[in-house]
Amino acid sequence: MLFNLLSLALVLAGPPAGHCHKVAIEAYSCKDTDQVKDIEPDYWKADPQSVEWFRNARFGMFVHWGVYSLIGHGEWVMNNERIPISEYEKLPPQFNPTKFNAHDWVKMVKDSGMKYITITSKHHDGFCMFDSKLTSYNIVKATPFKRDPLKELASECHRQGIKLFFYYSQLDWHNPDYYPRGGTGKTAGRPDAGDWEKYKDYYIGQVRELCTNYGEIGGVWFDGWWDKPTADWGHDVLYPMIHQLQPKALIGNNHHVTPFKGEDFQMFEQDLPGQNTAGFNTTHQSDLPFETCRTINNSWGLNTADHNHKPIPELIRYLVQAAGRDANLLLNTGPQQTGEILPDHRERYLAIGQWLLTHGKTIYGTRGGPIKPSPWGVTTSHGKQIYVHVLEWPTDGILKLPPFPVKIHRASAFVGGASIPFEQTTSGVKLTLPTASKDPVDAIFVVETEKGF
Ligand code: FHN
Hints:
Layout: H1 5-13, H2 23-29, H3 33-37, H4 48-57, E1 59-63, H5 77-80, H6 85-88, H7 102-111, E2 116-122, H8 139-142, H9 149-160, E3 163-169, H10 196-212, E4 219-223, H11 235-245, E5 250-253, E6 266-269, E7 290-295, H12 312-324, E8 327-333, H13 343-359, E9 367-368, E10 377-382, E11 385-390, E12 398-401, E13 408-413, E14 422-425, E15 428-432, E16 443-449
Parallel strand pairs: 1-2, 1-8, 2-3, 3-4, 4-5, 6-7, 7-8
Antiparallel strand pairs: 9-10, 10-11, 11-16, 12-15, 13-16, 14-15
Helix pairs in contact: 2-11, 7-9, 7-13, 10-11, 12-13
Ligand FHN binds next to loops.
């Protein structure tokens, strides 16, 4: 039997009264495996044009914002400082970020050359930064702020042409039904009981809200699966539901393992594809588009003690390194309890934006390679143009590249456009780099070929 049209209608319309829960969830809860089996292949993946858009975007802003910003010890504070729910629940009544201004955030994103925002709708602490009907533990019902910042952000993103992705933590330290417990959140003070099926209905229902109440979204960015890697998370229902409700939305899951069926991009945390300095990146690189997420300092959520903000050149070079590996960079900030972006971060984002104004052609819409990342730097390409990003200047000023399978027509400096000498033989390509083009951030040269490769 092909896809059951009635199921689709129900998924889109919501559950009939008296029927068990939302239908996509129902397919799981009622163990009606026929519905899952018959999900149309299209619902396992995002619209190809959106995937292409994502590949071309190359640069986005990651935002970790929640009631934990009141404490300023990072987003893991509840777990790390063993704060029980009864104490942690005292935070929302104090959370009133009246200086949050969606227009300003999105304008800063645009001015910084970023094409999308990925923001925490719910982090591991379980507090919802959006208006959820499935819990009152949310920013509209439990804080004096009473506003839904994700709604405001969504409208502003739509207005200013920026895509909005929702980070959603599958792991939850607050919900008692998140049981059996996983590896973390054991000091929250919950009773040793809970109904996992109920939790699944809850979390999938929340994702459904995020896919229904905010207009078109860019995607959903999951995290926390790793807390219970052997649990049944209901992805066979969750992923098609997202693609049905939001055909253009991409799904990514920060589970640190090989991507699962239904995921549209592969993510890397604090590492470039092919690297593993943070210890998360132990699996192979898939054929999906890549995204690497990175902190500006060493913290995701606001950490008032962490002033170790990376210098602007280092951040630009990371963006270049990511593009050279065919990956987007999702650069994180942890806004303050007031709702404002840290000035240190704002300054850095805008500086990257300034650099992109001149050099963006070598980043946006490009693909990584064709020459593999090397100690001297990386390449990006667009059609017949290969952009050679020299991050470490060769001591003799001659850059030696491997053989090119196509004829080179011309080589030039990206800035100024002056031709540079090149030599192409069967054993490789030599570019003579003029000292005048030296750039401590990224010296870019353009190699024009007969046809792309
Ligand atoms: O535990 C989270 C962490 O708080 C943060 O959200 C990062 C972002 O990639 N992901 C998790 C760890 O893998």
